[in-house]
Amino acid sequence: MPKHILIVDDSKTVRNLVAFIMKKEGFRVTTAEDGLDGLEKLYAGDTVDLIVSDVNMPRMDGFTFIKNLREQDAYRDIPIIVLSTEGQDKDIQTGLTLGANLYMVKPAQPEKMVRNVKMLLG
Amino acid sequence: MSQEYIDPEILADFFVEAKEHLETIEPNLLELEKNPANLGLLNEIFRPMHSLKGASGFLGLNKINGLAHKAENILDELRQGAMAVNSSIMDVILSATDALRTIVDNLESSGQEGDVDTAPIIERIESILAGDYATPAETIVQALDVTLAEEETPMPSTPSLVETRHLRSSRNSSCCFGRHRPNNGTLARPACRCSRGF
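Above: the input entities. Below: the structure tokens describing the complete assembly.
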């Protein structure tokens, strides 16, 4: 059974591109348009093994999304990679403090993304 | 981005997305000219510019990415209140948006970003970000709404600078935008005294 990745990004281009990259590696992918949509997909769908999330999104941003997840037992340990254009130290610090496992700055190299996803999935 | 990931379907998604972003940005920019203190409008412009930067960066569209990045920088300064909207800033953001639109259209029609020269726009934004903007305290006001009666109102102690406004279609980068004002400081719509003769 392929591992299942949830990609949360308000940019359809980025969502589809990351999905394309992950599918090429044999992962199963679900996409969401923002943090709220991400929560809904998590609550409604199959078990997700890893989340890749943007930060700056409408309705619910990535930091709120992560904070929300880490407050729930079911999602306390799910690996989360932040993928954001916000690359300042304070942004990275915030993301990691809230519970992200990795913080990647866009545009990330596909090979590096895949490597990090595989590393976090063990 | 490696070419193996540049799928035609993803590029097609990008064109749709980019045009949606520009269609959100453009009317909001024109509205911002009328309401320069409206933070909500700035956010409405910032977000699509930010998304355009992110998506283009992922696809290795460097010209779009570089210009959207700079435009985002200046929009961020505005929404954080670090600088106020003025005609110089509006002009450069509109120029950036026009150039982005042209590059996206070029890319869609020919597969190339084309020869749009973004360097002068980026240079201008950088110089504004570095503090070189004509009249930092100046705020665009709706000079077109200034009536003759208002023009004859006695001068307040610290009168706002009145700027004539140009419709976008008649925008002319060489124009002084009526920035010059009469020496007596009245609110009279200024007769421009710049060398261009506007």
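Note for the figure: Helices of chain B lie at 8-34, 39-58, 62-79, 87-110, 119-129, 148-151.
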